[in-house]
């Protein structure tokens, strides 16, 4: 700790900070541009100048840049000094010489750091009367818009994009007063984190392109604290709504999870909420072939209760993309014995192993913030940038942590970003990655291996054996792998805090258990390590804790006519299992009830469809991959702008259907009641009540406002429907109001912040007002509650080790490769995400392609026992021979571990398939291909389709 | 991508999609420079100079080609190329005239030299004569402060330059 004197007052601060950090953490306002809490200081913009004095008696003082000056003990500074004020005013005037002053048409306006700083410094008269330099803007893809004239040359964009996130295609061009930030040529920004430029840029150079089509100022948006539903990381978000549509998603600061940054899937993947084809009313069709008719709520509930009451046995199929509350309510409706998680068996087996390892590996699961504190990392079987992108970004920071360590050893503070970077150069903490192909983190990895899943597992088991001889040895291990295992093991053992990362992406239990053995070995060697296991979907972890049968079981119950009715919750079964398999089960079901917010292939099979709330229209709880239960809150009432809409949370629908089945009156149900009930009925979920405050929570006697106090047009926004303004929607479920009335300040600490705003701070930098120190934790504590903790006790090693991957003649092993864009069901229904998704392809090693005599781009047909698909071939330099890669999200007929044969297909383009159509090829034009010179496949049975 | 794969991919394509290909000698020279440094990006300036020596300027296609050889992003190469005023990213004349406009030369009638050159050539700073012979550029110092006003034509430095000699000096550069 250090004592600093600011404008004559003494404060206790962290002496390791710089003066700017220290002042901002104290809540004092110092203007700045180039400094950022996650990226440190470079002293480029000169905006944060303050007067520093030698001691209490010094009256002269000198101007210093507060971001580049340590907050050393007994510092004497003045922010309000006249010379410092004049200096700061002149700096902002220079920075704005070429700025177009186009705030009225600029999409940054209203949440613009440059506006805030200009007001703060008092620069309100323009004196520059000359010609401004102008730039040509670039096309940067579907996510980010570019307007270079607004640039003030703070360099934050390239520092984030290149240094922090590892991008290579954004640069700073030119020199002195003619600097340009953009790509070398027009083109899509390649980084998976490009959306953060919209928040990192202090002005309107980089803005949200997806928001641009239907733009609304921040102060006219309605927000709620939400949780990203697009993967299992559980990033906190602030979706903003206007006129019944989600207009944009902003980062919501969480000190342990996402902090300042989101991935592009999470930020730009919300378009499915706004789709015109969403079901908004209950729909009924007596037979699958009939046209559906819409029903009123009461009629739909009566119909639902009737058909389910008359059924012999009702199966409930839950969903890992729905809330715990909705899944719980479904289980209550059908009974625990009839409840399926809606997850396929292979994935569920992986989830169960992961949940057990989270408790019984001896190593704790670190938060994302804590991941960045580890100094040796092994990733087994995950391409984190594709499967859990935000986690991948944290791993990158951990690896870069080596630079800070080197700097610290030389007395350079970690915040001195340019010095740390120059000193560190390419010195990284060791990162090892084993995956079937190249991954997004290979560039900073000490070593990476492209291996078949079984070989990844064997490498892992071998590492565990080196760390602890009590761990089982791998039989028939080749010398090269043994040496690699020793190399990795010694790096993990040498580390202060080793971290093991694995997950279910490859659907391989062996890979997960291999990671588990390493964790146990490290824990037995008493290492302060961590184990983090990647789950697939937003609530996969939660569904595993809730428990239930796998999806195949549910379909079998229908197929064998052990049950004649099924209720499917927010789950497109066609996305999980082969079409024929789902069809045959649903064909046999007398009654199919589907609740969803998307018109999926499964919805189209429903006799009764009930329109469910998406994350934007409902409340609920998700459990993230670190085992953190987090509540997301309804952003807007869908009936306010669309009175014809009958959208409700699935848990509300299911409660009402159950009451109807039991011939009870439909009593009112609230979020608090269903959350409490869920917690009581499932011991593993007992903690979820504490994930967020209940609906009776008040700050200074007030509910919390969803809308900024400047929210405009409330009386007019429905006037095209009716000039009478209805009562503001009421929210019985949460402490939030659908209104600007309510508490929205920062002085009273609270965990659940709909939007960050403080007087003078309209930009995302306002979060500094809500944290205990800049870049720290929310003052009220970070939201959510951890449900998975390591249990004390000794744990046994797993001893089943797969044998080494062996190629088969004329057969290829399928590996489904997760992908950030296009690999996830709901976000793929958003236009910008599908535009960004790489074209569908079958991926083959160059070796195999050469042997088969096929070239890049040629059409190949993959046929397995469960499906067949024709796609262009994409050569992969890293993939091992004998493996065919299939991008995730293309066709549920294929899952990792299947074996299939390849054919040269019809002309490219004839059989192009989209992610939803699942088009199948007509049949091969030639016989199956052999992957060696001698073998012809015995299964050369051509176009036979199996059920 | 691991290092081996990266290296393979890069050496396979020392060209970009626009059809620009590094001259074999230049590719060799750049690889030679690259191997002198711990970090390949340190050879970026040399690589740009090698290309400029052959073409007189750095054509657009050379940027990704150099990036591939060095294993860095095209944006980094373009950043370096546009930062230095003597790396030309537009075609220049056969001879580049650099006229010093810093303080010593300013005191020794740089302005008259500038006017004589623009009048004689019919072009201003940053322009090239229509016959592609000369490009005229200002430069901040040539290290010839004792001989102001100074200028360079190609690789030759002149100073003090008498206004009357300008025409005959330029005659030496066909």
TrEMBL record, chain A:
**GO cellular component term, pick one:** membrane
Is the keyword Metal-binding in the record?
A: yes
Q: Does the keyword Iron apply?
A: yes
The organism that produces this protein has a lineage beginning with:
Bacteria, Pseudomonadati, Pseudomonadota, Gammaproteobacteria, Oceanospirillales
Q: What is this protein called?
A: NADH-quinone oxidoreductase
Signal sequence residues:
none
Name the protein family: Belongs to the complex I 75 kDa subunit family.
Subunit-level organization: Composed of 13 different subunits. Subunits NuoCD, E, F, and G constitute the peripheral sector of the complex.
**Annotated region described as Disordered, given as residue ranges:** 910-947
Known catalytic reactions: a quinone + NADH + 5 H(+)(in) = a quinol + NAD(+) + 4 H(+)(out)
Q: Which NCBIfam families match?
A: NuoG
Q: Which cofactor does it need?
A: [4Fe-4S] cluster; [2Fe-2S] cluster
From TrEMBL, chain B:
Textual note on the cofactor: Binds 1 [2Fe-2S] cluster.
Alphabetically sorted, this entry's keywords are: 2Fe-2S, Iron, Iron-sulfur, Metal-binding
UniProt-annotated binding residues for [2Fe-2S] cluster: 100, 105, 141, 145
The record lists the catalysed reaction(s) as: a quinone + NADH + 5 H(+)(in) = a quinol + NAD(+) + 4 H(+)(out)
A single Gene Ontology MF term assigned here is: metal ion binding
Q: Which cofactor does it need?
A: [2Fe-2S] cluster
Which PROSITE patterns did the record assign? COMPLEX1_24K
Note the InterPro entries from the entry.
NuoE-like, NuoE_dom, NuoE_N, Thioredoxin-like_sf
Pfam families per record: 2Fe-2S_thioredx
- Give the family, as the similarity comment puts it: Belongs to the complex I 24 kDa subunit family.
What PANTHER family has UniProt attached to this entry? Answer: NADH DEHYDROGENASE [UBIQUINONE] FLAVOPROTEIN 2, MITOCHONDRIAL (PTHR10371:SF3), NADH DEHYDROGENASE UBIQUINONE FLAVOPROTEIN 2, MITOCHONDRIAL (PTHR10371)
Assembly state and interactors?
Composed of 13 different subunits. Subunits NuoCD, E, F, and G constitute the peripheral sector of the complex.
User: What is the name of the protein in this document?
Assistant: NADH-quinone oxidoreductase subunit E
């Amino acid at each position: 700790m250090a004592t600093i004197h600011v404008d004559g007052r003494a404060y206790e601060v962290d002496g390791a900070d710089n003066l700017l950090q220290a002042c901002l953490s104290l809540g004092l306002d110092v203007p700045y541009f180039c400094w950022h809490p996650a990226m440190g200081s470079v002293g480029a913009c000169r905006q944060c100048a303050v007067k520093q004095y030698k001691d209490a008696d010094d009256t002269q003082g000198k101007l210093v840049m507060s971001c580049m000056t340590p907050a050393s003990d007994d510092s004497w500074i003045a922010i309000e000094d006249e010379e410092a004020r004049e200096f700061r005013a002149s700096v902002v005037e220079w920075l704005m010489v070429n700025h177009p002053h186009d705030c009225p048409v600029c999409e940054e306006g209203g949440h613009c750091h440059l506006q805030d700083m200009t007001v703060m410094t008092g620069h309100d008269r323009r004196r520059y009367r000359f010609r401004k330099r102008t730039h040509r803007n670039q096309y940067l893809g579907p996510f980010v818009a570019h307007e270079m004239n607004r640039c003030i040359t703070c360099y934050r964009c390239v520092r984030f994009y290149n240094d922090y996130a590892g991008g290579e295609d954004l640069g700073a061009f030119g020199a002195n007063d003619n600097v340009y930030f953009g790509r070398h040529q027009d083109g899509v920004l390649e980084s998976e984190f490009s959306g953060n430029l919209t928040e990192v840029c202090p002005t309107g150079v980089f803005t949200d392109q997806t928001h641009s089509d239907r733009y609304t100022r921040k102060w006219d948006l309605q927000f709620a604290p939400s949780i990203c539903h697009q993967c299992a990381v559980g990033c906190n978000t602030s979706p903003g709504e206007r006129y019944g549509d989600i207009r944009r998603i902003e980062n919501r600061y969480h000190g342990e999870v996402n902090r300042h940054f989101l991935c592009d899937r999470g930020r730009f993947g919300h378009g499915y909420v706004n789709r015109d084809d969403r079901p908004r009313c209950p729909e009924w069709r007596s037979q699958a072939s009939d046209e559906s008719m819409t029903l009123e709520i009461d009629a739909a509930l009566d119909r639902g209760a009737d058909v389910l009451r008359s059924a012999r046995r009702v199966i409930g199929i839950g969903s890992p993309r729905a809330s715990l509350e909705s899944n719980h309510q479904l289980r209550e409706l059908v009974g625990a014995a009839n409840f399926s998680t809606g997850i396929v068996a292979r994935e569920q087996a992986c989830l169960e192993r992961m949940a057990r390892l989270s408790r019984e590996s001896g190593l704790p699961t670190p938060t994302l913030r804590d991941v960045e504190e580890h100094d040796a990392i092994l990733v087994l079987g995950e391409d984190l940038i594709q499967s859990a992108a935000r986690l991948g970004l944290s791993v990158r920071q951990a690896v870069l942590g080596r630079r800070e360590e080197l700097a610290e050893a030389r007395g350079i503070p970690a915040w001195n970003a340019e010095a740390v970077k120059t000193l560190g150069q390419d010195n990284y903490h060791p990162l090892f990655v084993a995956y079937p192909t190249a991954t997004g983190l290979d560039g900073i990895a000490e070593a990476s291996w492209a291996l078949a899943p079984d070989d990844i597992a064997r490498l892992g088991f071998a590492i565990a054996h080196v760390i602890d001889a009590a761990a089982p040895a791998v039989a028939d291990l080749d010398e090269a792998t043994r040496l690699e295992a020793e190399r990795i093991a010694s790096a993990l053992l040498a580390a202060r805090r080793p971290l093991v990362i694995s997950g279910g992406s490859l659907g391989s239990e062996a890979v997960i258990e291999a990671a588990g053995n390493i964790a146990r070995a490290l824990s037995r060697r008493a290492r302060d390590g961590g184990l983090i296991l990647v789950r697939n979907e937003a609530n996969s972890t939660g569904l595993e804790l809730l428990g239930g049968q796998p999806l195949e079981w549910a379909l079998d119950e229908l197929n064998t006519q052990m049950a004649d009715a099924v209720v499917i919750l927010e789950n497109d079964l066609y996305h999980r299992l082969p079409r024929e398999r789902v069809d045959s089960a649903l064909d046999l079901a007398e009654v199919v009830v589907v609740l969803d917010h998307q018109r999926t292939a499964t919805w189209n099979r429903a006799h009764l469809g009930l329109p469910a709330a998406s994350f934007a229209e409902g409340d609920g709880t998700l459990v993230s991959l670190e085992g953190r239960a987090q509540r997301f809150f309804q952003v807007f009432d869908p009936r306010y702008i669309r009175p014809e809409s009958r959208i409700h949370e699935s848990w509300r629908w299911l409660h009402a259907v159950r009451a109807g089945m039991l011939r009870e009156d439909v009593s009112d149900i609230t979020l608090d009641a269903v959350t409490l009930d869920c917690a009581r009925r499932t011991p593993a979920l007992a903690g979820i009540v504490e994930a967020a405050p209940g609906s009776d929570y008040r700050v200074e006697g007030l509910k919390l406002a969803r809308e900024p106090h400047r929210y405009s047009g409330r009386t007019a926004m429905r006037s095209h429907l009716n000039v009478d303004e209805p009562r503001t929607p009421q929210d019985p479920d949460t402490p939030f109001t659908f209104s600007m009335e309510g508490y929205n300040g920062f002085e009273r600490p609270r965990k659940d912040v709909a939007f960050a705003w403080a007087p003078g701070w309209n930009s995302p930098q306002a979060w500094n007002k809500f944290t205990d120190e800049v870049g720290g934790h929310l003052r009220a504590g970070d939201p959510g509650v951890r449900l998975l903790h390591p249990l004390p006790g000794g744990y046994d090693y797993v001893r089943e080790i797969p044998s080494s991957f062996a190629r088969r003649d004329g057969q290829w092993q399928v590996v489904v490769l997760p992908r950030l864009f296009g690999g996830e069901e709901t976000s793929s229904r958003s236009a910008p995400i599908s535009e960004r998704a790489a074209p569908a392809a079958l991926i083959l090693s160059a070796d195999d392609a050469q042997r088969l005599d096929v070239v890049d781009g040629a059409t190949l047909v993959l046929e397995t026992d469960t499906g067949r698909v024709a796609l262009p071939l994409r050569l992969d330099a890293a993939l091992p021979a004998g493996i065919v890669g299939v991008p995730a999200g293309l066709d549920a007929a294929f899952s990792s571990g299947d074996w299939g044969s390849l054919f040269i297909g019809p002309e490219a383009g004839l059989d192009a398939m989209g992610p939803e159509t699942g088009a199948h090829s007509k049949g091969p034009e030639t016989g199956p291909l052999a992957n060696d010179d001698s073998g012809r496949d015995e299964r050369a049975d051509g176009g036979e389709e199996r059920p | 991508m691991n290092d081996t794969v990266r290296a393979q991919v890069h050496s396979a394509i020392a060209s970009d999609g626009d059809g620009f290909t590094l001259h074999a000698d230049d590719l060799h020279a750049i690889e030679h420079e690259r191997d002198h440094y711990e970090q390949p990006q340190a050879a970026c300036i040399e690589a740009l100079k090698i290309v400029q020596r052959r073409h007189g300027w750095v054509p657009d296609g050379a940027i990704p080609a150099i990036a591939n050889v060095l294993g860095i992003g095209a944006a980094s190469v373009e950043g370096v190329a546009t930062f230095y005023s003597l790396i030309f990213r537009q075609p220049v004349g056969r001879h580049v005239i650099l006229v010093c406009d810093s303080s010593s030369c300013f005191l020794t009638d740089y302005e008259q030299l500038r006017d004589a050159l623009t009048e004689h050539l019919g072009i201003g700073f940053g322009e090239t004569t229509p016959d592609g012979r000369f490009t005229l550029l200002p430069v901040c110092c040539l290290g010839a402060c004792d001989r102001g006003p100074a200028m360079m034509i190609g690789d030759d430095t002149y100073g003090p330059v008498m206004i009357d000699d300008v025409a005959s000096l330029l005659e030496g550069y066909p």
